[in-house]
What does this fold into?
Amino acid sequence: MSKMDPQRRAMLRRRTRMLYAGRTPEEQFGFVNTPIYRGSTVLYPDAHALRTNSPRYTYGTKGTPTTAALESAWAELSGAAGAVLAPTGLAAITLALMTALKAGDHLLVTDSAYRPTRSFCDGYLAEMNVETTYYDPAVGAAIADLMRPNTTAVLVEAPGSQTFEMQDVPAIAAAAHAAGACVIMDNTWATPFFFPPHERGVDLAVEAGTKYLSGHSDMMMGLVSANAEWFGRLRRTFDLFAMCAGPEDCFLALRGLRTMELRLYEAQRQGLAMAQWLESRPEVKQVLHPALPSHPGHAIWKRDFLGASGLFSVVLHPVSDKAVDAMLDGLDLFGMGYSWGGYESLVIPFDPRTYRTATEWSPGGPALRFQIGLEDVDDLKEDLDRGFARLRAIG
Ligand SMILES: *Cc1c(COP(=O)(O)O)cnc(C)c1O
It folds into this structure.
């Protein structure tokens, strides 16, 4: 196989490009996949190369062919100028925030953000003299009213963690840019396959690769992609911290990338089938899934998103915690645990009332978050059907 002409390669459709991105078999003795390069020391060919630090690879923290393959593939997928890797999704969020912020700055964060993002803002950025204001995710263009002269970053996350509020990202981005602020997005739910972040106005897009890029609940990874305006600063921050992803995890991420789109379409299909079934259940008050027409953010989802992944929530009609626990404890196919995006189904109860500050969460019943895996949906329905019978028996 010869090396493909770069121009012809750029013309390929995304699905094809994602099979080739970050892969150079001709440089790997013909082996299809980029192998795991492990290493700290990189030997220089001569003193001149050492003095000028000119080779492509210079030290373990500065990248390897394995990390470079993943970075370039992710940048290509994201429509970004470049991307950097981090050991976890949360580390990627902190990297993005520290790229955009300095002491004395003000930060706007959606009230629906991933909770550990809040903990970082309140527990670390506050000590570094960065003030955070939480805003209603439904703010839209009115974010302009919250901007202060020292507001340098706006963090969006759509849909919101656990509660699935949609956000008008293009409108927020336009207002933020008019005031000179950087737009950071946690794009973990949709991934760049279902929400092209930079096309929609995002400057720094964060993905927890721990979820769908892995797809198998067997690794942790974070990725940050940046547009041309922000990539230089992102790379600089990355170099200063040297918060590097492990080589095996990069290999697993590259492996996951080749089937990620297929798995996402299946997650969408399975997730919607379960969401629709749950919407028909008498025990369920509301299903929070942006691809359902009943969702308050459905119009935004339809306008801006290209698909939906397999994570959503439901609000039950009022029942006791004991009844919910009886439902959950007997489930065979839904594991209880954090994270998502793997091949197995999961469920957790949640209650964001204790930590949201800009909005009130009062859905009128207990709430459950579902991650739908690749099981046969009829098996999943039967498992939940038995669970609902246990719930009703206690009430
Ligand atoms: C899981 C998750 C993260 C963090 O990823 P980790 O790899 O677990 O640190 C960030 N944002 C969202 C929306 C997530 O679901």
User: Anything to note?
Assistant: The mean pLDDT is 97. Residues 88-90, 114, 161, 186, 188, 208, 210-211, 220, 222, 339 surround pyridoxal-5'-phosphate (CB under 6 Å).
